[in-house]
Amino acid sequence: MYKIEFNDFFTYSFSVDCVIFGYKEGQIHALLIKRSMEPYDGHWAIPGDLVYPDEDISAAASRILSELTKIENLDLHQSETFGDPNRHPQGRVITTAYFALMRIDDFKVEASSWAGEARWVPIHKIPQLAFDHNLILSSTYKLLIQKLKNDPICFDLLPYKFTLNEMQKLYEYAYDSDMDKANFRKKIKPIPLIEHKEKQVNVKHRPAKLFSFDESEYVNMLESSEYQFKM
Amino acid sequence: MYKIEFNDFFTYSFSVDCVIFGYKEGQIHALLIKRSMEPYDGHWAIPGDLVYPDEDISAAASRILSELTKIENLDLHQSETFGDPNRHPQGRVITTAYFALMRIDDFKVEASSWAGEARWVPIHKIPQLAFDHNLILSSTYKLLIQKLKNDPICFDLLPYKFTLNEMQKLYEYAYDSDMDKANFRKKIKPIPLIEHKEKQVNVKHRPAKLFSFDESEYVNMLESSEYQFKM
DNA sequence: AAAGATATTGTACTTTTGACAATAATTAGG
DNA sequence: CCTAATTATTGTCAAAAGTACAATATCTTT
């Protein structure tokens, strides 16, 4: 049987990389950090690091994200695992990507530890990244778009209070096609929304009503009926 | 920064596990092998083993599947990665699950190497398995059911020539609900099928026509129209 | 040739979708 | 205050897709 030999720290190890998505100005953005250590010192990258030997990988994802960006309490979902033997220049490092959604406005992103700088970058303007992070990001982005279509996660990207038009714009982005306003409203009828008394402010026209996702009612609905979300 | 130390072979390594699904007698089955070495000697398990240090993980999945079961040329898809630090009794082993579909009749399964015995087991009668393989299997099974609903993969499970009723039964299984025969046929109208001249044999009633999936025509259709598979 | 069994097709009704039009509520400028 | 401009919101109608159920067709068995 094959015998594996270890030489040093980097011979065989495991990491996680966190793709954090946000939405502003009509576009999905990803959170990038600027690396301040080798390898790829000075390159942009998605936040990631090695998993401790006795640490669960999803716990590692939360820890590493927090260490590098101060972001806490995000719901991280597993994406894909990347195992090309040459993906890391210093040895064999297999990595699992995680992703999470957040409202960009909710957090002032603050880099810490060995990440000097952090920035939200529109998904279609991602520069050359460290390691195989461009690959990781594009695979995970595809997964995000798929999830947007099949799960009510748009509300994690939109502000807490949003207009139906803002919601529609996000789906138009996901499907890359325009939708009819009246028909869109018909389609989302079954999704329980809280209707606020407030309206949009600072617009030069009739202001739209503000809504929020009624998550507890949505959970009820899933239990009591056989509703299946699909946009 | 955290310093990782290695003690022996099993301190930190990486494996793949292959979930092979088949369909017969109206039920999805998984291919299990009986282990003939420690740990979990004598237990049933899904085929899996360690990845070589310079081997791509998807290549490892193919190699290991072939070594343990003689099965070759299956289209393996990545499923989930499992990283509980205690999932392996001898050390830290993170594993990525892969899955594939096959026509049970196409292969006489033949165990080799350290797997003494192999067996197709209905998914609802899976015994206690080695490691966290029950968890891996059930997660991957959920993924399979989801894929069955959203991709034309039923044809990888059905015999090459199948009746429309056989196809319907598979979807009834996936959705766990009965369907109307006439309506089912209307629904699958857009899926290109090759109609054979042969009919079912050895049945005590009017034999059904046999069909095959017309894959090349399906690919054409995807390119030329905006058809989206959904059952 | 008739009965039994399942395959295959047809019909009518209901629901959903899609295109487009009409009405409502604000702001901005006179 | 009145009117135009602008976007929000709701309504209508026909086409398409989905659902329930019935009718007909083809084979085996007796």
Structure description:
The termini of chain A are far apart. In chain A, a hairpin with an 8-residue loop joins strand 2 (27-35) and strand 3. Chain A folds into 2 domains: 12-150, Nucleoside Triphosphate Pyrophosphohydrolase; 154-224, Winged helix-like DNA-binding domain superfamily/Winged helix DNA-binding domain (Arc Repressor Mutant, subunit A, Orthogonal Bundle). The model of chain A is unreliable at 1-10 (pLDDT under 50). Chain A is elongated. Helix content of chain A is 28%, strand content 27%. In chain A, the strands form 2 sheets. In chain A, strands 1, 2, 3, 4, 5, 6 and 7 form a 7-stranded mixed sheet that branches. Chain A has a two-stranded antiparallel sheet with strand order 8-9. Chain A has 6 helices and 9 strands, in the order E-E-E-E-H-E-E-E-H-H-H-H-E-E-H. Chain A has 231 residues and is α+β, with helices and mostly antiparallel strands. Chain A has helices spanning 57-69, 133-150, 154-157, 164-175, 181-187, 215-224; strands at 12-24, 27-35, 44-45, 48-50, 77-82, 92-101, 115-122, 193-199, 209-213. The interface between A and B is medium-sized, with 28 and 28 residues. Chain A binds a DNA duplex (30 and 30 nucleotides) through helix 5.
